[in-house]
Amino acid sequence: MRPGLRSNPLRDPRDRRLPRVPEPCALVVFGVTGDLARKKLLPAIYDLAHRGLLPADFVLLGFARRDWEDGDFETLAKKAAKDHARTDWSEEVWDRLAGDIKFVAGSFDDDQAFDTLATTLDDLRNSHGIKGNAAFYLSIPPSMFPVVLRQMERTKMADNATSGGWRRVVVEKPFGHDLPSAKALNALVDEVFTAEDVFRIDHYLGKETVQNLMALRFANQLFEPVWNSNYVDSVQITMAEDVGIGGRAGFYDATGAGRDVLQNHLLQLLALTAMEEPVEFTAEAIRTEKLKVLRAITLPADRAAYAVRGQYQQGWLAGERVPAYRDEKDVPQDSKTETYAAVRLGIDTRRWAGVPFYLRTGKRLPRRVTEIAVLFKKAPHLPFSHTDTEELGHNQLVVRVQPDEGVTLKFGSKVPGSMMEVRDVSMDFLYGEAFTESSPEAYERLILDVMLGDATLFPRNEEVESSWRVIDPLEEFWAGQEPAAYRAGEWGPKAADEMLARDGRTWRRP
Ligand code: BG6
Predict the structure, then answer these.
(1) Cα 26 to averaged position of ligand 1 atoms, centre (Å)
(2) How far is the CA of 86 from the centre of ligand 1 (A)?
(3) Is the CB of residue 441 below 6 angstroms from any atom belonging to ligand 1?
(4) For the chain, which has fewer Cβ within 10 Å, the N-terminal or C-terminal residue?
(5) Are 483 and 309 within 8 A, CB to CB?
């Protein structure tokens, strides 16, 4: 064991209460030169090293089609970590990690490269004491999953028995592009790896605020009694982004907002908001409750009225002119891909019957904000005059997933003065003020959980398939239709406002 890592003086104080350090292992990353690896995965590994949470015997092994030595990969990883890590930069931490960075060059159809990778993992057992344990992170285009999985099968790298330790695989979304493709992919992954060794990433589940939903609901007495159709009027889940599609036209134009985020992030937020209390805080129990919600989701019969999609036109954001989606680099001029989607869903259970769940997401909206707003019914009777309560809205509980992470409770309060005027006020809990610890990045948490073998925050394949059962009919309905236009910098197309107006409601302005 190399000294130092476990007793890192810079370790996050919170970790004293969470001394979960994984067993020795290698983390093999496919696609290390990609955006996700550079901006999220490699920085997260540095952050874990900084917090003393990597195993004492650890290897980061990169695989990509580059004519590189270990040192070249280390240079890339160092730059990525320096540019994007959450924790402070420390040469000392990096130097310790740098000695454990390896690289294998090759393309995915190159048998020899995979043979080398398998031999390298074998060698690392002795040279770095990884005990045959390895997690394979597929940070690669979905079209490449089958060939890489087959290579792992051929070389027996996925085989727990042969390895003498554990072998796990991390699969990035999108997990398929519809139900049949997701089923095919699930079947393939389950053929190569044992089901409990498959970790499907939905990085929203790694966000502290999302996990806090469970703490808020199930650690308190205050909210659960009113968390049902007797008291809840409606729920609004918003995931808004001010950014456009960056350099991802190839991926995004073939995907659209429905498949990119509604199918996964938003439906997972809905599931956590609506699920019953799990019998215990384990992966199996939580996944079971989420799955029950996903299975109970109902789609609007009138799709034209309650399933809206849009595409951004040229507009203004933060004082800058931004181009229309169709004028983004590599997007076809006649693209019908949606950059905005909003839908009204129902949940067919005793708890939620009749409560609409409005979900919306979009790119080039006025600002980046993700929130879950539970709007309560109005009081059945008010002993005040109508004019005194004109400015009183619905009581609301808003979980601010990001930014300004926290929770807001909105309720009516008397305006100071001689009248009994009642107006909405807000009570705020802000992570930044309540805690001195800063929140780990989602990927930090999730990579650590993979190494620990803790699947609590990873959707199981039935959840993925149930989510496609919700999205497929929407995609079918939308296919070929012209998306509604909205100007970049506005809160989506008019049709989305009309959708709520039809129900006598309005979208919250986050
Ligand atoms: C990804 C989507 O899953 O989530 C992107 O593919 C989106 O299109 C991103 O921009 C948003 O993640 P976050 O954590 O920045 O809200």
Answers:
(1) 27
(2) 17
(3) no
(4) N
(5) yes
Residue 484, SS3 per DSSP: strand
Query: Cα dihedral sign for 306, 312, 313, 318?
Result: positive
Please tell me the distance from the alpha carbon of residue 244 to that of residue 322, in angstroms, as a whole number.
Answer: 9
* Cβ atoms of 454 and 161 closer than 8 Å: no
Which atom of ligand 1 approaches the CA of 368 most closely?
Answer: 16
Give the mean pLDDT of the chain: 93
Rg of the chain over Cα atoms, rounded to whole angstroms, equals 24
Say if residues 231 and 377 touch (Cβ distance below 8 Å).
yes
Instruction: Give the separation between CA 59 and CA 75, rounded to whole angstroms.
Output: 16
Q: 92-101 burial, b if ≥16 CB within 10 A, otherwise e?
A: ebbebbbebb
Angle, alpha carbons 470-471-477 (nearest 5°): 110
Please indicate whether residue 172, judged by its CB atom, sits closer than 6 Å to ligand 1: no
To test the pocket of ligand 1, the residue of 173, 241, 264 to mutate (highest count of ligand atoms within 8 Å of its CB) is 241
Q: In the structure, what pLDDT confidence band is assigned to residue 473 with cuts at 50, 70 and 90?
A: very high
Give tens-digit pLDDT for 55-74. 999 999 999 999 999 999 99
> In the block, which residue shows the tokens 């456009």?
244
- What is the model's pTM? 0.93
Distance 363 CA to ligand 1 centre (A): 10
CB 465 within 8 A of CB 186: yes
pLDDT tens string 7-38: 333 344 444 455 578 999 999 999 999 999 99
**Is any ligand 1 atom within 6 A of the Cβ of residue 338?**
no
Cβ 405 under 6 angstroms from ligand 1 = no
Token pair belonging to 271 = 């599931």
Q: 75-132, pLDDT tens digit by residue?
A: 999 999 999 999 999 999 999 999 999 999 999 999 999 999 999 999 999 899 999 9
289-321 tens-digit pLDDT: 999 999 999 999 999 999 999 999 999 999 999
With the most atoms of ligand 1 within 8 angstroms of its CB, the residue from 175, 208, 261 to mutate is 261
Contacts of 509 by beta carbon, 8 Å cutoff, 6+ apart: 491
Amino acid 7: pLDDT: 35
Residue nearest to atom 6 of ligand 1 (CA): 260
Q: Report DSSP state, residue 356.
A: -
* Nearest protein CA to atom 8 of ligand 1, as residue: 260
Catalytically active residues, by annotation: 265
Contact 28, 61 (CB under 8 A): yes
Q: Domains in the chain, ordered, with CATH?
A: 25-172 (3.40.50.720), 205-437+455-501 (3.30.360.10)
Residue 227 predicted with pLDDT over 60: yes
pLDDT value of position 9? 35
